Amino acid sequence: xxxxRANPAGVAAPFGPLALFRTLVSIGPAWIxxxxxxxxxxxxxxxxxxxxxxxxxxxxxxxxxxxxxxVFAAAGFGLSIVVxxxxxxxLGIASIPLAIxxxxxxxxxxxxxxxxxxxxxxxxxxxxxxxxxxxLQPSEFAKITYVVALAWFLxxxxxxxxxxxxxxxxxxxxxxxxxxxxxxxLGTASLFVPALFAMLIAAGARLRHLxxxxxAALAIAPAAYxxxxxxxxxxxxxxxxxxxxxxxxxxxxxxxxTTAKQLLAAGGITGNTDAKSRVYIRYSSLPxxxxxxxxxxxxxxxxxxxLLAMIGLFVIWIAGALLVGATAHDTYGRLxxxxxxxxxxxxxxxxxxxxxxxxPIIGITLPFVSYGGSSMLACWVMSGxxxxxxxxxxxxxxxxxxxxxxxxx
Amino acid sequence: xxRQAHTTLLSQRPATRGSSLPRLAxxxxxxxxxxxxxxxxxxxxxILQADAxxxxxxxxxxxxxxIPAARGSILxxxxxxxxxxxxxxxxxxxxxxxxxxxxxxxxxSHARSSTGHAWxxxxxxQRAERVSAFEAVYNAHLxxxxxxxxxxxxxxxxxxxxxxxxIVRQVESRRATLVDFWRIREYAALRDRGVEITDKVRExxxxxxxxxxxxxxxxxxxxxxxxxxxAFACLLLAGERTEVLPPGVESLANxxxxxxxxxxxxxxxxxxxxxxxxxxxxxxxxxYPLESxxxxxxxSTFPSPLRSATSDATPSPFTIHVxxxxxxxxxxxxxxxxxxxxxxxxxxxxAHPDVKxxxxxxxxxxxxxxxxxxxxxxRVGDAGIESSREHELRGLRGVKSVRVDTADGNSIRMxxxxxxxxxxxxxxxxxxxxxxxxxxxxxxxxQSWQRKEPRPDEKTPIxxxxxxxxxxxxxxVLDVDTAEILAMVSTPTFTREQLESxxxxxxxxxxxxxxxxxxxAIASAYQPGSIVKALxxxxxxxxxxMGVDERLACTGHFLPNDPGSLRCWIYKEYKQxxxxxxxxxxxxxxxxxxxxxxxxFELGKRLGPSGIRDVFRDFHVGSAFNLGIGLEYPGxxxxxxxxxxxxxxxxxxxxxxxxxxxxxxxxxGQGPVAWTPLHAANAYATLARFGAxxxxxxxxxxxxxxxxxxxxxxxxxxxxxxxxxxxxxDSNGTGNHLTINGSREPIFNAKGVKIxxxxxxxxxxxxxxxxxxxxxxxxxxxxxxxxxxVILVGRDRPRYAIAVVCDYAGSGGKxxxxxxxxxxxxxxxxxxxxx
Lengths: 409, 835
Description:
The complex is a heterodimer of chains A (409) and B (835).
Chain A: H1 3-6, H2 16-26, H3 30-52, H4 64-85, H5 88-93, H6 95-110, E1 129-131, E2 134-136, H7 138-154, H8 167-181, H9 186-190, H10 192-203, H11 207-224, H12 230-244, H13 255-265, H14 274-284, H15 294-326, H16 331-355, H17 373-391, H18 397-400
Antiparallel strand pairs in A: 1-2
Helix pairs in contact in A: 3-4, 3-15, 3-17, 4-17, 6-7, 6-8, 7-8, 7-10, 7-16, 7-17, 8-10, 10-16, 13-15, 15-16, 16-17
Chain B: H1 3-11, H2 17-48, H3 50-60, E1 62-67, E2 74-75, E3 81-86, E4 89-94, H4 95-99, H5 101-115, H6 118-121, H7 124-153, H8 157-192, H9 199-209, H10 214-217, E5 219-226, H11 228-237, E6 241-244, H12 257-263, E7 270-273, E8 279-282, E9 285-287, E10 293-297, H13 304-312, E11 318-322, H14 327-330, E12 333-334, H15 341-351, H16 353-359, E13 360-362, E14 368-370, E15 380-381, H17 384-388, H18 390-393, E16 398-403, E17 411-413, E18 421-422, H19 427-436, E19 473-479, E20 485-491, H20 496-501, H21 509-514, H22 520-523, H23 533-542, H24 569-574, H25 578-582, H26 588-594, H27 597-618, E21 636-637, E22 641-642, E23 650-651, H28 660-666, E24 673-674, H29 677-688, E25 692-694, E26 706-709, H30 714-729, E27 737-740, E28 743-746, E29 754-763, E30 767-769, E31 779-782, E32 785-794, E33 800-806, H31 812-829
Parallel strand pairs in B: 2-18
Antiparallel strand pairs in B: 1-16, 2-3, 3-9, 4-5, 4-8, 6-7, 10-11, 12-15, 13-14, 16-17, 19-20, 19-33, 21-24, 22-23, 25-26, 27-28, 29-32, 30-31, 32-33
Helix pairs in contact in B: 5-7, 19-31, 23-27, 23-30, 26-30, 27-28
């Protein structure tokens, strides 16, 4: 049998060209995830350039934003290699110190005494830490820590089959949600919920329990409306206006949403030429067009076909990650894959929902595509985690089938 | 294998497919389902809405630049320009440049960039020191910029500094007001939420509310009304850059190249705009070329005391400077748009579909745009014709649409200048009338010869204006045939400069007496007095309550047993009756000639309350003329009646509830009746038209409105007109002559014209003033009779109706008569009474 799979340390021996080739082949479905990642990043660099430049200077091939995005993508790739090389278990073992560090970072953001040179509110939220030229968004880091920590907790949690046993994972989830919501960044905070549910499903929680919780949450959701901040309420009211076809707020609270929809629809089925699209995008005055609203830019350039292809790439990424999870060596690895897939999937849905006028504008970026270093690096780390799990699947599927038990049972 | 190794191995057992695969498939399924929702919505947008969206997106590529439109001019009946736009430019600067904050910001940035990496290792004190050194450099740059601007614009530097300081003061004061408002609001909100206001909360609130206001981020005009040349000279400066060197460094140009290059590190000099943020914008100014004019008056036509006084001192003709000509009529424009302007504009467009069609333009994105819509700092008519004809005078701005990507589809729609309006006013006639009514001319001043000899036992009435006091009053000249208003003067008037300085809005005794802002010709209430006798006679004879040949006796007092009330003026002064004086009872025309009260008391009685009410209603009392030049007084008829719905309040006097006693008094124009000089002139013009009513007009473009007829007998009107002719032309007429120092001189001395006229000396309620508005401190500041004279003048038939009134001036014949005479001379001088 092949040595790498039998290696109890779980690390493929990366020695010699043949071994390396074997290793690369062995990650199997992670390949499609990595391939999707690479294509999305290429698309991202082009789309950011499209969104930020009308015409290039003679000696310029990419706009400053697009060049930076290219650097972020390259850095992300490098980081994912590092993540891939670190056994994913080690991260699990380190999950408690990591979680404490993350919580400290999130708390640091909320300390009013921190000078604005370090924590400067953007769009009214204290989400960023400025360290010299570097700007970090701890909530992106929190997503990864959360996936690793919750997976580590759930891998041997006894009580997940009972309703009461679900209390602890929910309590764990409330920590990042609460801290991020205080920034306030309800959008990012809300992404933790699908991740929790997906990981609970994968961890074997009873589906009827989860369904019950969802129904209960939906029932009490309207009661939580008064707790929302005024701008959050305004966005929900704006969305309702759009559903009803009320155009009175189109130049006001719904401006971003209606402009995005218009730009997106103007792409038609096959899109516009590069030059035309650049003009449309520039003069649409769409806010955050290189960032949250990048799907509208892509759809304007490549049309419905391009948008659906991009959605397809995300489906591939998630299917790849789930496939890696399905073939994972252990529950922990599987849960990490599912957690990453849920975060990426949730973010994709919310972001596209915003762009398509189905959800309120809540400042969620499109993974791998929206401009921004923290988001890009976090997404690449997730790709790296999936590849890392794939690299250490260890056991051949055929052999594992019917013989192994779920480790907690 | 030890226990730990066993555990490790156990925990690394492969995951079971059996339990995980369906669940992971479920997760994938959920995601696929969500993707399906997204794909459906994307397809709906991209397929169904693509065309509309593309059209909209294309429309966004059109960039519209608006081209301002000139406001229409206002001209007089002879085409003289009364109000026009003078093309001009203004120079705007950003507020931070005006306030000097710009220098601080630039200094900080330059100090940092010129220091390079060393900045990081500097202490805060060192940094502050370096910044302040740079600040001095940038302050000097700004000072040079102001000098240069003053020089190019051709304005005084000190004027520019005053403007600058005034802008800073205004913005700071506005900011202080707003910050106070925000703080009060925040504290109120906190209290509502039950938050205790601690020092910390207070500090937070202060910090939150201590923010910039919009004015601090916008441009402000520092120079107005620049002509083309100065504007071009300033425009050349826009965008020009000057090198700014760090403190202590000589300019590269002034020192030897090698040395200086060694001293100055690359990147330490900066090029900044010579005058930072300078913009030159098109800003027309409204100009009123005839607001001030000089008028020549001929004293030889004045009453002798004024004629002789000038023979040694001032020559005749002499010049009078008239200020504020037609200010009441024209109004003004303001450069500030109020909240009510936009709804008023929409209402006007809705009421005028043809104007709306022209005003609305497609400017892309499927939006129609009113080209006359108000933008910030647009000029808006604020009073008078400028206000009432705002939407005609206001033009439609042009719009230049340029496609940002290609040259195709560019279009330009030229601005449409506002409509020019011609007034029926003759500006020079107006100026002559106003000149005659200025105190400088001497006619509208309390003179000793205007007063009757006081009886030895008579005390000076409280509030009687002392000798030499300037008189306030009004005069209206109306064309009988067309009902066009040729002149409408109210004195004292005001200048636009006074309006700007707000000196007219203070509370003072003098202003309460003079009320320059009120257009007395249409907005002040006057008892008509004897001038209504002509109207009463013509109506009484037409209604058959008096025969054309009937003669009535003057008995001195109307009530046989009460010689103390309802007396004739001749009885009051000379204990005589007109019947005795003339040797026979009076016919209608003789009653007008001598202005006999007893005859008209009798006619008031015969007409009765409803008859006398109808007489006044026939002559427009109780309704305004709606000329559109500001507030109008419609006139009052009958006693005010208590409002049954609101105790303590009164209904507007509308002619109901007149008693017989009041009807008798109203026969001589006293009692519960009041009107304006325009009513008087209109009534006489209507009489001269034998009852044909035409609404007075002030804008030539307006159609003539036929308002029906008053049912007057021709013989009654002819007798009335004869009475009016006698009043002026018979030596017994009240409007015939002035008696000065025992000798008589005619009131009217124009050759070759016929004058029909009537004096009126109307008892008026005293004018009271209280500095603090309390009744306790109230004093009478004017009392006595209003002096009226209304005439019809023409070469052979009545062509023009002239009404003159002077407030609290006493005798109609002695005060208003000579003014009316000057108006006749003015008409002749302006060519109105040529054969």
